[in-house]
Amino acid sequence: MADTVESSSGSGYEEGSRRQNRLQRYRDLRFSEEELAVILLTPVVSFLLAVSFYPIFDTIVGSLYQGYVLEMNPREFVGLENYRSLYGSGPLLEQFLSGDGFWNALRVSLIYTFVSVPIELVLGLGLALLLNRDFKGKYFAQAAILFPWAIPTVINARIWAWMFNGQYGVINDLLIRIGILQTPFPFLAKPDTALYSMLFITIWKTSSFMALILLAGLQSIPDHLYEAARMDGASRIRQFWDITLPLLKPTLLVALIFRTLPAFQAFGLPYGLTGGGPASATTTLVLFDHQLTFNRLSFGEGAATATIITLIAAGIAMLYVGTLYEPEVR
Amino acid sequence: MSYDRDTLEIRNFQWVGKKVGFYGSIFIIALVSVFPVLWMLITSLKQPGNVVTFPVEYIPRDPTLANYRAAIEGAPFFRYLLNSVIVATGTAVLDVLLGALAGYALSRLRFRFKLPVLLLILGTAMLPFIARLIPLFSLARSWGLLNDYLGLIIPYAAFQLPFAVWIFQAYFKELPDSLEEAGLMDGLSRIGVLFRIILPVSAPAMATAAIIVFIYAWNEFLFALTFMTEDQMRTITVGIALYQGEFQYPWGTISAAVFMSVMPLILFMLFFQRKVVEGLTATGKA
Q1: C-beta separation of A31 from B191 below 8 A
Q2: Which of B:116-145 have CB within 8 Å of A?
Q3: How many other CB atoms are there within 10 angstroms of residue B246's CB atom?
Q4: Hey, how many other C-beta atoms are within 10 angstroms of the C-beta on B190?
Q5: Which of A262, B16, B99, B194 is the most exposed, fewest CB within 10 Å of its CB?
Q6: Does A248 touch chain B (CB under 8 A)?
């Protein structure tokens, strides 16, 4: 289209005004749509290739070497040795169920992800249904509910570490007051309860985020569908199953991807809450990777772990898109 | 007559019950949401000796600001805040600029390979951060960008760019074609239309993208912890996480520091809540 509009540069009556002069400049810069797209997208694509794709590629290559990054150690090609040392010894299932190191971290991350995300989804949907109504004070309710999402994860971890404190924590105090506990319980010092506490905190923090994404989906469902269903005498529960859920499917996909991938990469919460303890009970894969790389300076194994994390994340994303994606007809 | 009045009363009763139930649950949810921050405020106002008592004190006796003074004196608190403001603002500006241009191309221009480019941009959002950490760390080191604001702004901008692009392209897609056609009729070039017509009306998308990117950059921990090794260059998030007082568990001081660091964000959320919600919902609408 742009090319067919005739250039009117040079017509006399435009000369005087500055506005017209500026217009003139934009008229002279003529590109086809294709050229303009290349001009506009080149900076973005090259930026992403340099800062996102190149590092991943470098990590994958680095996982095949020893002494990666450390200049004092010349890199030595070791093939899959870094992966082999992560594997440990013994049968696969046994290692996964009770192994330490990489397998423990993988187990913790999988439990963390696949327990927290479904609960967040259900709670978030409940919250979204509640907020989808009009009521007085909705603004403040929404702001309050968004609170947990806005607090930085690692600071949130410090807050809850104090609230879960085994001697002076307010959670213990409240539980004793309502009669659930007799004496204070060291939640973060026992392996099982440390992981449950971490799950509780992450669910508390991200259900509101889930709710907001789902709220958008709810609001995009046209009202007349519900009206028609009411006329047909459909109950609220039926309306939910037959209208709300199917039409919410694309939004659910986005919400699940947006939550599962970060949950699988949890770092700040275990770092700030327990440092991964007690006895590695809350050491997630990324925390494990961080410890390998920065505490044990085992860059090759760190890169191997990062590569595995990348593969699993890609797998999760493809799984979701494959099961939930419905091609849109435009 | 009396029958009618009875059912009316029953209905009234049910109506009131529903209202109470509804507002009650909203209140409880809101309380659970804000309680931890409220608890930090309460802890921070206690006399140092009263912080570690059990059963705990729910209303501080003899409230004091001593913990706040200790928090400010114990660490370069305002320097941390300034660092965070600079990094988060820089990231937001860069992403709004790049995101708007790419979003326009992807939503309103016809060109070959549009789908692969879109998938490439959005696909980067799914790449794990830890797998980018070490290579970017060594790049930053060889370019002298460790302990430099740009050293964080560049990776943050790259990580959030897919979201910014997504927000802009979703917004631009909704704009009517007539807007651009009018500009083209006036004799503007395509780039003229973008800068003189489209960008000026995209303030809502800019605000949304800027806020979401800002909050991300403010909250990020892994890269901030690794790239800023000098105490003076730490962001507020890392500063608070690594906060150590003179004693082993200075919970009163930590509470004060945490509350002060969360406060700006809370005010920010109260002011921009609507924008944040719009932004999140724009990304959710897909």
Answers
A1: yes
A2: 117, 120-121, 124, 126-139
A3: 8
A4: 26
A5: B16
A6: no
Quick one: pLDDT at residue B62? 87
User: What DSSP state is assigned to residue A265?
Assistant: T
The answer to whether A274 and A188 are in contact (CB under 8 A) is yes
Q: What pLDDT, in 10s, does the model give residues B248-267? A: 568 898 899 999 988 888 88
The residues of chain B scoring below 50 in pLDDT are 1, 246-247, 285-286
Contact state of B121 with A157 under an 8 Å Cβ cutoff: no
For residue A2, give how far its alpha carbon lies from the nearest alpha carbon of chain B (Å).
Answer: 6
Rounded to whole angstroms, how far apart are CA atoms A238 and B29?
Answer: 26
Distance from C-alpha of A320 to C-alpha of B279, rounded to nearest angstrom: 23
| Cα dist from A222 to A128, A217, A218, A237, whole Å | 16, 10, 9, 17
CB contact under 8 A, B104 and A40: yes
- In DSSP notation, chain B reads -HHHHHHHHHHHHHHHHHHHHHHHHHHHHHHHHHHHHHHHHHHHTS-HHHHT-SSPPSS-SS--SHHHHHHHHHTTHHHHHHHHHHHHHHHHHHHHHHHHHHHHHHHH---TTHHHHHHHHHHGGGS-SHHHHHHHHHHHHHTT-TTSHHHHHHHHHHHHHHHHHHHHHHHHHHS-HHHHHHHHHTT--HHHHIIIIIGGGGHHHHHHHHHHHHHHHHH--HHHHHH--SGGG--HHHHHHT---SSS--HHHHHHHHHHHHHHHHHHHHHHHHHHHHHHHHHHH-
| Count of C-beta atoms within a 10 Å radius of residue B47 | 15
Classified as helix, coil or strand, A76 is strand
* Contact map slice: A 191-220 vs B, CB within 8 A: 204, 208-209, 212-217, 219-220
Of the partner residues A5, A33, A152, the one whose CB lies closest to the CB of residue B219 = A152
pTM as predicted: 0.88
Q: Running along chain A, 330 residues long, what does each successive block of 10 average in pLDDT?
A: 44 57 68 89 94 93 78 74 87 86 95 96 93 85 85 93 92 94 92 95 92 85 89 89 89 85 94 91 96 90 95 89 62
Bridge partner residues of A66 (DSSP): A76
Inter-chain contact A2–B155, Cβ cutoff 8 Å?
no
Q: ipTM score here?
A: 0.88
